[in-house]
Design goal:
Layout (H helix, E strand, L loop, with lengths): L1 H7 L3 H21 L2 H4 L4 H8 L7 H10 L1 H15 L5 H19 L3 H28 L9 H63 L1
Keywords: Cell membrane, Cell projection, Cilium, Flagellum, Membrane, Protein transport, Transmembrane, Transmembrane helix, Transport
InterPro entries: ExbB/TolQ_transport, MotA_ExbB_proton_chnl
Subcellular location: Cell membrane; Membrane
Length: 211
């Protein structure tokens, strides 16, 4: 590996840095974009069951908010009704929508950086190719003779940087698309869960208004 880095020349170092950052972001997102941490499948049914006859206690709502990202959205609706029993449906929807925006922003964290690396890596590889071509042309003496060592180094710089740029860009783009699809799926799950919870919570708001 060290010999390859030496043959690729100094333009390889930005690509190595991009590869390290991309790998770290991919591992971080693979860990945090799990259903158990974002939207547990049974969480909504559990919330509906707990609040079937009465609103849960504050400590239960706080634990729900810490459970997952979806838990935070559902907890926002519960907290809104607890804080204002006479809350209207538009106000409740607005409270949950605001929490949902925060949740989506949280799930999208670092995705723009990963997408930037996927787009920039081929350009950095192309830059290394240009540097290699400059060295190739520089190996040609005015008399027509050439320096074989400098010529070989220029070719190595051009080819290795092109290859490294593609090696970094292709997996980064694939994971970026994969994570983007996961975020959209989680966003849809949270929206559907909020739609189910709003009419359920409005039963308590109506009772509060009646009394």
């Amino acid at each position: 590996m060290l010999s390859i880095i030496q043959a690729a020349g100094w333009p390889i170092w930005p690509l190595i840095l991009c590869s390290i950052v991309a790998l770290a972001l991919i591992l971080e997102r693979l860990y945090h974009l799990r259903a158990a941490l974002i939207a547990p499948p049974t969480l909504l049914d559990e919330v509906l069951g707990v609040s079937r006859n009465a609103l849960p206690a504050t400590d239960v709502v706080n634990k729900l908010a810490e459970n997952s990202v979806l838990g935070g959205v559902l907890a926002a609706g519960l907290q809104a009704v607890i804080a204002e029993p006479r809350i209207t449906e538009p106000a409740l929807r607005q409270a949950m929508e605001n929490a949902g925006r925060t949740a989506v922003h949280q799930t999208e964290r670092y995705l723009n950086t990963l997408g930037t690396i996927a787009a920039a890596a081929p350009l950095l590889g192309l830059f290394g190719t240009v540097v290699g071509m400059i060295e190739i042309f520089g190996s040609q003496a005015p008399t027509g003779a050439s320096n074989p060592q400098l010529l070989a180094h220029g070719i190595s710089v051009a080819l290795y940087n092109t290859a490294f740029g593609l090696i970094i860009a292709i997996p980064s783009l694939m994971f970026y698309r994969y994570f983007r699809g996961q975020v959209e799926a989680f966003q849809l799950t949270m929206e559907l869960a909020a739609e189910r919870l709003v009419p359920h919570l409005m039963r308590f708001a109506v009772r509060g208004t009646a009394t």
